[in-house]
Amino acid sequence: MKYPIYFAQVEEGDSTAQHGAAGRKATANHSPTGSNNPEGQGLFAAHKTIHVREVKGKFNNFRWLFVWLTQLLYFVTPWLMWNGRPAVWLDLQKRFFYIFGWTFSPTDVIYMTLVLIICALALFLFTTVAGRLWCGYTCPQTVYTEIFMWIERKVEGNRAARIRLEKAPMGVSKLVKKIIKHALWIAVSLAASFTLVAYFTGAEGTSNGVQLLREIANHETSFAQVFWIGLYGFIMYLFAGFMREQVCLYMCPYARFQSVMFDPDTLIVTYDEARGESRGPRKKGVDPKTVGKGDCIDCGVCVDVCPTGIDIRNGLQYECIGCGACIDACNEIMDKMGYERGLIRYDTENGVKNKYTKQQLIKRTLRPRVLVYSLILLALFVALFVGIGQRTKIRMVVERGDKRTLAVHTEDGLIDNVYKLQLSNTDEKLHTVILSVDGIEGIKIVGKPEVELDPASTDTKIIRVRVDPAVAKAAEKNEHDNHDAQKKDKEREKDGEQDDYKSYPIVIHLKSPETNENLEYKSIYYLPKD
Ligand code: SF4
Ligand code: SF4
């Protein structure tokens, strides 16, 4: 299948011949290859600032709705508390993540992996159905660029005023405006980077935001905290303030592989060429047919509002982030001219070709690829929630030392083996767990078998497990049953290890009466041969 829309590059002279002044302006500035670079001819296109024109309309409102929703969520969460601790706390020091009522320990890495796979697959699904929705409405680059452009408009004025200001020589008024704009950009960047670091900062009984403020006030911040506040703030200031569309065009890999996910039934921002051409100016209210033209009046407003500076009338290009700003702009022009809206619209390649109705477009979203993605996504969601729901609250990992240091002779002629237990309590409550061991006649844990585990904590406990060597003889009678131990013995003999010890399989049990969980861990007990 051929998609001229993906990499619709305007050949030299093409835009001049077909697409009017606006088209020429846009394509000249942003060809990634530099082939349309007016200066020329170098390997890299010279960057020119895009002065985006303000636009009003349905899709602009949607975009701002997402700006508010995402930013409210992002900025408010670090000030929320849950069960006496930050509602969301990514505690890297203790390696515990607290997300409202859920606690994740390092052993939950499988769920993190599942979440990442779900995010990637959801992106594939949404892109297949509706193109670059993520880019146009919720990507942080789009969201912060929108906020930065709003600040720019408030301080420096509308598009025409900003162009005048850029051309004007530096004077007091220009300097003051620039200082105010950059100060506000830096303030937003620092607020966002403070918030990011707050998610990783926390303490019991206080929110992340308050804790980070307290640490800053008391000069208690670590180098890592200061570093990340500075680095993330700087990146945001650079990306949203200066680089803007260049991040999407040259740095973001998503733009490059989106074509793999598109098909002729994917919703994309489309210019209805059959209706719009031939384009050209005419007086307001003039019926295009009477002047032998299409509905496009070649005003160039759709290019002026485009954050990536492209002309959608050249076909869909990879630079298009699907934000819909050109749709709002063109609809406004169509209203003014008294023409039907939708010369630029969200539509599919098949929809434009076959003039599908809305119902037909919706029906065609249920195609095999979409159904397969949806089913896999559903299965992953089920696996994630079932997995999280069935997690044990208490976890145990046992480490044992080398046999020469592991088996210790006591004064009474008994043998102790030492084990290191990594215990995790992912519950929000304190739990007392009971340890026990079996596998050898008379084997027991030295000291108290109860261990208290603080809420949402990991603890390392060293235990001594004692055996009377007399029982070893009795155990040896059962040696023929100890296949694992025999196998290991043979392996060690093969490796030339000193073999003064005999190994016996044992099981360490952990019982949690409150959660009703019973864990067991298989290990080996070493006894000297004599
Ligand atoms: S805004 Fe509409 S009418 Fe104006 S140039 Fe763009 S497509 Fe043509
Ligand atoms: S062409 Fe239209 S939808 Fe695409 S990025 Fe530009 S304004 Fe947004």
Keywords for this structure?
530 residues; alpha+beta; five-stranded antiparallel β-sheet; four-stranded antiparallel β-sheet; 21 helices; 16 strands; elongated; binds iron/sulfur cluster
Fold and architecture overview:
This protein has helices at residues 14-18, 20-30, 58-76, 109-130, 133-138, 140-156, 159-167, 172-199, 208-217, 223-243, 245-251, 254-261, 273-276, 301-304, 325-337, 349-354, 358-363, 368-389, 403-406, 470-477, 483-494, and strands at 81-82, 85-86, 88-91, 96-99, 102-104, 268-271, 344-347, 394-400, 407-409, 415-425, 431-438, 444-445, 450-453, 457-467, 501-512, 517-528. By secondary structure, the chain is of the alpha+beta class. The protein starts with 13 loop residues before the first helix and ends with a strand. The longest helix has 28 residues, at 172-199. Helix 4 packs antiparallel against helix 18 (368-389), helix 6 (140-156) packs antiparallel against helix 8 and helix 8 (172-199) packs across helix 10. Helix content is 46%, strand content 18%. It is elongated, with a radius of gyration of 33 Å. The protein is built from 21 helices and 16 strands. The model is unreliable at 1-40 (pLDDT under 50). Strands 8, 9, 10, 12 and 14 form a 5-stranded antiparallel sheet that branches. The structure holds iron/sulfur cluster (2 copies).
